[in-house]
Amino acid sequence: MNFGTGAVKITPAHDGNDYEVGERHNLPFINIFTDEGRIVGDCGKFRLNVAKRYYWLYRNWNCIVDVIIILWLCRSAAALKMWWNQGSPFSEISDYWVVVHSKAEVLQKASEKFQAEVYKIVLQQDEDVLDTWFSLFPFSVFGWPDQTDDLKTFFPTTFLETGHDILVSCVARKVFFSQKFLRQLPFKQVYLHPMVRGAHGRKMSKWAMLWTQWMLSMV
């Protein structure tokens, strides 16, 4: 070989292709990130400044890396507002965004970064939310775990009307969560409506630019 050694890195815990290689050869899956997304202290120092290429978070272009963790993942659009879903863990301080577990933690980070007393810091939580319908309706949205009047009035509800495409991914999970936390079925009946699809059988989707308002604007 006239260039290089032919050696490549293998990071089964942080790359999809490497994960498959690690599975085939029983390699250790070493996670170099903490739960907060920081690199752990035993990884050594970088020898060279190399070009780093990762997937990018589409909303604010922050870099994200694959990490193996035990977690429920929700594949849905985070486009609703705070009063309907559970709040996102993002907070803004003068265009400085952080992801934290608690308000106390974000205040501490902001205080360290800006060298300011905690009581002088004003936080603004991201108005968007983590869209997890199956965990929030029909009980979290009414104030659970507090025994609110709304919760007593509206849970359980009578029936749920939805599309058949989310029967397992959403409706079944509503039942699981309600049985787990409130020991009741969330509804007695489920009505499934038909789906409006495009010319090639694709589901109407804002993300795919396949929805009626957009199509009418093109006429």
UniProtKB/TrEMBL annotation:
- GO (cellular component) term, any one: cytosol
Keywords assigned by UniProt, alphabetized: Aminoacyl-tRNA synthetase, ATP-binding, Ligase, Nucleotide-binding, Protein biosynthesis
Q: What is its EC number?
A: 6.1.1.9
Question: Which InterPro entries did the record assign?
Answer: aa-tRNA-synth_Ia, Rossmann-like_a/b/a_fold, Val/Leu/Ile-tRNA-synth_edit, Valyl-tRNA_ligase
| GO molecular function terms noted in the UniProt entry | aminoacyl-tRNA deacylase activity; ATP binding; valine-tRNA ligase activity
**Statement: the UniProt record of this protein carries the keyword Heme:** no
Where does the Aminoacyl-tRNA synthetase class Ia domain start and stop, copy by copy?
102-206
Tell me which family the UniProt entry assigns to this protein: Belongs to the class-I aminoacyl-tRNA synthetase family.
Protein name per its UniProtKB record: valine--tRNA ligase
Species for this entry: Glossina palpalis gambiensis
